[in-house]
Amino acid sequence: MKKSILLLFCTFLLLTNCTEKKIPNKKPKLVIGIVIDQMRYDYLTRYADRYGKGGFNRILNNGFSLENAHYNYMPTYTAVGHASIFTGTTPNNHGIISNNWYDKFLKESIYCVDDSNYTTVGNSGNVGNKSPNRLYTTTVSDELHLAQNMKGKTIGLSIKDRSAILPVGHTANGAYWYDGGNNNQWVTSSYYMKELPKWVADFNANNNADNYLNSSWNTLYDINTYQKSRDDDNIFERNLKGQEKPIFPKNLKELRAKNGNYNLIKTVPAGNTYTVDFAKATIKGEQLGKTAHTDFLTVSFSSTDYIGHRYGVAAVETEDTYLRLDKDLEEFFNFLDAEVGKNNYTLFLTADHAAVHVPAYLQSLKIPAHYMDTKKFRDFILNITQKYFNSKELIENVSNYQIFLDKDKIESLGLDRNKVAQKLADEVVHFDKIYKAVTARTLQTTNFTDGILNSLQNGYNQKFSGDVLMIPYPATLTSGRKGTSHGSGYSYDTHIPIIFYGNGIKKGKSAKKYTIIDIAPTISNLLKIEAPNSTSGKVVEEALIK
Ligand code: ZN
Ligand code: ZN
Questions:
Q1: Calpha distance 94→87 (Å, rounded)
Q2: Which CATH code fits 370-473?
Q3: How far apart are the CA of 37 and the centre of ligand 1, in A?
Q4: In 238-315, which residue ranges form alpha helices assigned H by DSSP?
Q5: Distance, CA 341 to ligand 2 centroid (Å)?
Q6: Residues 6+ apart with CB under 8 A from 406
Q7: Which residues are part of the catalytic machinery?
Q8: pLDDT digits (tens, 9 = 90+) for 442-495
Q9: What ranges do the domains of the chain cover?
Q10: At the top level of CATH, which class does the domain 32-362+490-543 belong to?
C-alpha cells in the first residue's frame, strides 16, 4: 500500500515536472509585439474596474507586468519609440532621432521613413515611398531571421507607416499601413514586394471601413457612468471639423466628408477595431504560427494617439477609446487561441510614449504648465547671436528643441563653433520656457548616468543631432491650448505599460525600474537568439520561466 502511494506520488511529481518544463522548452510559433500609440501606464489602472476579463486583464492576470517601466531618452515620439522597442537601444545608437528632423547633410527637413528609391505597392500615390533605411541597427525580428536562416515570416502592420515599418526592421517579409483619404487601402512599399498579396487585395476589396464610418460614435455605456473623465463638453478638447462642440454622439456618416473621408477612421476607436480586422487577415493570409519556425508579427494601434492628441488624457473620448480597445484586444487574443493555439504564442504589449494632461487643464488646477511660442523663441536666439557674434546668420535650423548651427557661415566669419554653441546654451535658458540647455560637446564629453540629462544624452546622436540641445519646463507644449501631445523626457511621457504574456512567461508583476530597451533583449533571450546588434537593454529575468 505504502509503496503504491509512493509510486503514485513519484508519477505525479514526474508529470507536473514534465508539464512545467514543456512550456519553456518549446519555442513559441508566433511572437506578437503590440504597441498602443500614446498609452500611459495609468490607463491600465485608471479604467481598471471597467475592463472586462478577456482583454487587458487577461494578460495582466496571467502574464508579467512591469509597473515602473519608462522611456529613457527624449524626444518621446512615435518613430523613436517604435525603433527603440524593437532594437533594444536608444536614438544615440539606432539613428531614429525623431519623426521628422533636420538632416545636416542634405540640409533639409526629412521624415523618418521616406525613401524616394521605392514606390507604393497597392495604388498609384506616393504613400508607399518608404523604407527602414534610416534605422542603423537590427531589430529582434531581423535577428530572428538571421538565427533561422531567413526562415519564418516577420510582418509589421499599423495605420501609421512608421509604426508598421520600423518595428520589423530591414529583413521583413512585409509591412502594411493604411492610406486613407479617398483610398480605403492598406498598402506597402516596393522595398518589400512587387505586388500586394492576394489576401491584402481581398481585404481592401471588402471595404469594411465603410461599415465603421457609416455610423455614429456614441459612448459604449451610459455617458453618466464615465466618472473617470471631465464633463464631455469642456474647453480643453479639439472638435472634429463640422462639430460645434467636442461632444457625443459623433455622427461619423455626416462628419466623414469634412474630415478627410477615410482618414476619419484613424481618429475614432473603429480605427483600432479595423487594425484588429487586418491583423487577423494577416495571420490567416500568411498562415502565421503554423510551421516549425517562429514567426514575428507587430501590431501597432494608432487611433489611440490621434484621439489622445485631440481630446487629452482626462476626456470621455479617451476613456471610451480604451474601454473599446479592451474589447478589441479580447477579440484578438481569442482569435490567437483559436488560430495559433493557446500555448503557441508569446506576446508583449507596450506603448511608444505616453502623454501629458492638456496643459491648459493643468493650469486651471494651478499646476505649472506652459505653452512655448516658437516664433518668439526663434527671434530670441537670433538676438543672442547678433549681440555676441554680430550676425543673425549663424543658425541653420531649430527643431525638436535642438539648434543646428551653420558651420560654413561660422567658419567664414572666423568664429569658433564651440564658443557659439556654448554661448547659446548659456543664454537660451533666459527664455522663459527653457529650463536647461547643453551643447553637443558637453554630451560628447560628460557621462550623465541618470535623470533628464541622461535621457537627453541617450536621445543625442553625434552624427545626426544638433549643436545645442534644450529642455523646457515640465508640461510645456508648443501647440494650441486644446488637446495635448508628448515628446519630453518627463515621467508623464515616459511611463508606459510593458506586459509580457504567453509561452515562456511567468505570472507576476514587478515595480522595479525597467526601461523600454529591455523588451528586445528579453524576447531574444526567450527565443534563444542573439539580441539586436546595438542592444543596450537588459533581460527582464524575473518575467521568464527558466
Ligand atoms: Zn506615438
Ligand atoms: Zn502622438
A1: 7
A2: 3.30.1360.150
A3: 4
A4: 252-255, 270-285, 303-311
A5: 34
A6: 393, 394, 395, 396
A7: 78
A8: 999 999 999 999 999 999 999 999 999 999 999 999 988 999 999 999 999 999
A9: 32-362+490-543, 370-473
A10: alpha beta
